[in-house]
Design goal:
- 35% of the residues lie in helices and 22% in strands.
- The chain is an alpha/beta fold.
- It has a 6-stranded mixed β-sheet with strand order 8-7-6-9-10-11, sandwiched between helices.
- Helix 8 (296-313) links the parallel strand 9 (282-289) and strand 10 (317-322).
- Helix 3 crosses helix 5 (207-227).
- It is flat.
- The two termini are 41 Å apart.
């Protein structure tokens, strides 16, 4: 039977997760993200949970506060003593912070969006070797000494040699009685994945569009990390040219040049060829743009790279078009016209604003690929 405190804690965790799930869309739309603590957990702010409290009834019902007295009479203490601090205005901010594991956060996201578990496509997986202490040995360090087995060996030896005294049952192990926990190496194969983010950083992609991409990529990464033991993330930015950058640069770079989307697709293709064998890795290219491209010739080149290189190597190719007042949105239409019958291989999503982020995440992840 569980201890009452453990039951209460478990019930509280369920309430917390339910509250976060109820507010997930609003939370994501505000652009807030859980803060990694470095120990595998994330700190997430959430509205406070109201606890039961007494409410006073009408005056006619009687009760505390009734009887003689005039307005302004002191209730208690010195009526002339000034209060402390200054008067505030408005309602205080009722918010608390809770710590959740990656698995708990991913579970909340998965339940809210009804996401299926991913079925890896890679034939070969990453090999990891773990030690499991499932046997007993006669040598080992003191830290792995098995006291119960050592006691049994010493008892058997004293009984066999006739030195065991039932009137004075003292068991004294000698060196040959010592037993130790022994490890057996166990080889496990874990699926591995790489996520390649590409983003248009030309002048038409403003701070709001980048904030949408930053928020959406965080939750996509969160879900993929819950599905794969080993995951790598690569970042590509492009305007008329493309280059690979780190995460910090990816979300903070803004250029003023034109847009050649094919430059990003060529670099993505080269990264896959050089570093990620499709038979070993589950590959997820994501491209975010406002839909502007330099020319129809470059769009044609993009489609050729997708058909010949990126799509055949990937679990799924995802394109997210972030609406911008300066972007035409034409590239989405070009992809839609080309890949209507390849909905399982190419997923397209239109992201009008921050309120659309959660729906876009569902577009990308609901196939379970």
């Amino acid at each position: 039977m569980n201890h009452p405190i453990k039951r209460d804690h478990s019930r509280f965790r369920k309430i917390i997760k339910g509250k976060i799930r109820d507010n997930l869309r609003k939370y994501i739309a505000r652009g807030e993200m859980p803060i990694p603590k470095g120990d595998g957990t994330f700190r997430i702010p959430m509205p406070s949970i109201d606890t039961p409290r007494f409410r006073f009834g009408d005056k006619e019902q009687g009760g505390t506060g009734q009887g003689d007295g005039q307005p302004g009479d002191p209730i208690d203490g010195n009526p002339n003593e000034p209060g402390q601090g200054e008067a505030g205005e408005g309602e205080g901010k009722k918010e608390l912070e809770v710590d959740l594991t990656l698995e708990e956060l991913a579970s909340i996201l998965g339940e809210e969006l009804e996401l299926p578990n991913i079925q890896p496509k890679g034939k070969k997986t990453m090999q990891s070797e773990t030690d499991r202490y499932t046997s007993i040995g006669v040598v080992g360090p003191d830290s792995l000494k098995h006291f119960k087995r050592t006691y049994k060996e010493a008892l058997k030896r004293q009984i066999v040699t006739g030195t065991y005294d039932t009137n004075n049952p003292i068991i004294i192990p000698v060196r040959r009685d010592f037993r130790y926990r022994a490890a057996k190496s166990h080889v496990e194969y874990e699926n591995s994945a790489v996520v390649i983010y590409m983003m248009d950083v030309s002048g038409s992609m403003g701070d709001e569009q980048k904030e949408i991409v930053r928020t959406e990529s965080f939750w996509i990464n969160l879900w993929l990390r819950s599905q794969y033991k080993d995951i790598e993330i690569r970042y590509i930015i492009h305007d008329a040219t493309a280059k690979e950058v780190d995460e910090y640069t990816f979300f903070r770079t803004r250029e003023s040049g034109g847009t050649l989307i094919s430059s990003a697709y060529k670099l993505c293709r080269d990264i896959i060829k050089d570093d990620y064998d499709p038979s070993e890795w589950n590959i997820y290219p994501f491209h975010f743009s406002d839909g502007d491209n330099w020319s129809t010739d470059d769009t044609k080149q993009c489609l050729e790279i997708l058909d010949n290189d990126i799509i055949p190597s990937s679990n799924v190719f995802c394109y997210g078009q972030v609406e911008s007042r300066y972007g035409s949105g034409q590239f989405y239409k070009d992809l839609q016209g080309k890949y209507t019958e390849k909905a399982d291989e190419v997923i397209l999503s239109q992201i009008k604003n921050k309120d659309s982020i959660l729906d876009s995440i569902k577009d990308f992840l609901s196939k379970g690929k």
